From TrEMBL:
GO cellular component, one term: membrane
Compartments, record wording: Membrane
Protein name: TMEM205-like domain-containing protein
Alphabetical UniProt keywords: Membrane, Transmembrane, Transmembrane helix
Keyword Transmembrane: yes
Species per Swiss-Prot/TrEMBL record: Mariprofundus aestuarium
Domain called TMEM205-like: residue spans: 14-111
Upper classification of the organism: Bacteria, Pseudomonadati, Pseudomonadota, Candidatius Mariprofundia, Mariprofundales
Alphabetical list of Pfam families matching this protein: DUF4149
């Protein structure tokens, strides 16, 4: 029979792994394939935007689950400052990307219509490129934070699930 502590640790491990996957797969597998195979840059961008939006919503939810589980921890379960810092950094970056940068990118796309028809030296396209680059850097830092949390494990020292 699985005890509550082991169930909580297993749930935390799963949440952390899912968070890393939700950052790595869309950003470094799905988006490059879409841009290589979709034909039109605007179609690939629209699809990638939807994938990132869904991943971001899941990441925000998973961050809340991890926070809740850490706050509910038993007295013997030490989380540690590094884990909290990485989670808060990841959550802040995801929220910034989703609610700060994504609306700017959507507005710039709306101004130009199809990116396929806009010259590469167009000021709006260049501004889009800058904001897209900022978003990509935030995504990379988020992925590194998630990898750090997975590497550190769900809880601090002394936490195991041996029967």
């Amino acid at each position: 029979m699985v005890n509550a502590k082991c169930l909580r640790i297993g749930t935390l491990r799963l949440c952390l792994a899912l968070m890393l996957g939700l950052l790595a797969v869309p950003g470094y597998l799905v988006a490059p394939v879409l841009f290589a195979k979709a034909g039109a840059v605007s179609m690939a961008g629209m699809l990638a935007g939807e994938v990132f939006h869904m991943a971001n919503m899941a990441l925000i939810l998973l961050s809340a689950v991890v926070i809740t589980l850490w706050l509910m921890r038993s007295s013997g379960m030490e989380v540690g400052r590094m884990r909290w810092s990485l989670l808060l950094l990841l959550a802040a970056l995801i929220v910034t990307n989703e609610y700060g940068i994504s609306p700017i990118l959507a507005d710039l796309k709306a101004q130009v219509g199809s990116m396929d028809l806009v010259a590469k030296d167009d000021p709006i396209r260049q501004q889009f490129g800058i904001w897209h680059g900022v978003s990509a850097v935030l995504h990379l830092i988020s992925a590194i934070a998630a990898a750090g949390m997975v590497a550190l494990g769900p809880t601090g020292r002394g936490e195991s699930c041996s029967s």
